[in-house]
Amino acid sequence: MLAIVAGLFAPLDPRLEMINHFRPLLAIGALASFLLALLLRRKLLIATTGATAALMATLIAVPLLYAAPSADRTKTSLRVVTFNIWNGNTMLADAAKFLIGTNADVIVLQEVLCAKTDPLFEALLSAYPHVYRASERCFGQAILSKHPILKTGRRDYSYRAPLWLWAEIAWQERTIRITGIHLAHPTRPHDQAVNVNDLTGYLNAVRVPHIIAGDFNLTPYSWLLTKLAHRTGFRRQATYLSSWPGNFAFPVFLIDHVLASREFASAGSAIGPYIGSDHLPMIADLALDAGAIAMSDRRHF
């Protein structure tokens, strides 16, 4: 109970954010306590544990407020795959085979090594000839596209470079911006808070349909990710999937996300198989919403 309450104060102290990531597990514990109280037939205990379980159920449902609307799956969609390669990956050939097999329009990678020759990129080059890569510190990122890249940029932050990078492509007769991100580790909560504030300003400044994907190191239950979605209008393409730890039999947390501006609706999302990383790849199909585009165009006029 104390942990549940403490997590609610994460907006005041980023260190408490770690509690929120474990909210589903805390909810299971709250439900178990409630069931036990029912067996014991203790009225006060039933009331207390019941209220706690109800609170947890509500908090777990909150992320759905920031889920992308569903799109007609028959509509043409832009497929985006995000994958944290992991710098200890020994299955790069399998990773390349899987990534090519997704037939994604855009692939967003994190923990890209800085080697001059990289078997993963060499294998992907024929299918993804347009590449924007930043990996000078051997912990970088890359955006690979089937469509020509029109413009690129990046943002660095202290120990992590780049914090994000972006590329604009032409798709469906519109310019689409794709941003790849790798936020600070959860053990650096104050850095995470700064990252999210910076990212909020960046997302609100972009005036074209925009997709952001990568390793956020935040679960859907985190205050910071909810804050980001609330202040930018960006919507998650998945909520209750799990991508980490990918090298365990049963991943528990979704920390690899695809979010998009209001011009997009979700045509489906999925988590890929284990391909040598502690993260599992995430696949998202996004369709342009004509009504949302019209509203956006009027707003930016």
Distance between the termini: 49 Å
What is the H/E string?
HHHHEHEHEEEEEHEHEEEEH
Q: Give the total of beta strands.
A: 12
The mean pLDDT is: 91
Question: Would you spell out the secondary-structure blueprint of this structure?
Answer:
Blueprint: H1 2-7, H2 17-21, H3 23-40, H4 43-61, E1 78-84, H5 92-101, E2 106-112, H6 119-124, E3 130-134, E4 140-145, E5 149-157, E6 160-171, E7 174-182, H7 189-205, E8 210-215, H8 223-232, E9 235-236, E10 256-260, E11 264-271, E12 282-288, H9 290-300
Parallel strand pairs: 1-2, 7-8
Antiparallel strand pairs: 1-12, 2-4, 3-4, 5-6, 6-7, 8-10, 9-10, 11-12
Keywords:
alpha+beta, 301 residues, six-stranded mixed beta sheet, single chain
Task: Describe the 3D structure.
This protein is an alpha+beta fold and 301 residues long. The chain has helices at 2-7, 17-21, 23-40, 43-61, 92-101, 119-124, 189-205, 223-232, 290-300; strands at residues 78-84, 106-112, 130-134, 140-145, 149-157, 160-171, 174-182, 210-215, 235-236, 256-260, 264-271, 282-288. Helix content is 34%, strand content 28%. The strands form two sheets. Strands 3-4-2-1-12-11 form a six-stranded mixed β-sheet. The mean pLDDT is 91.
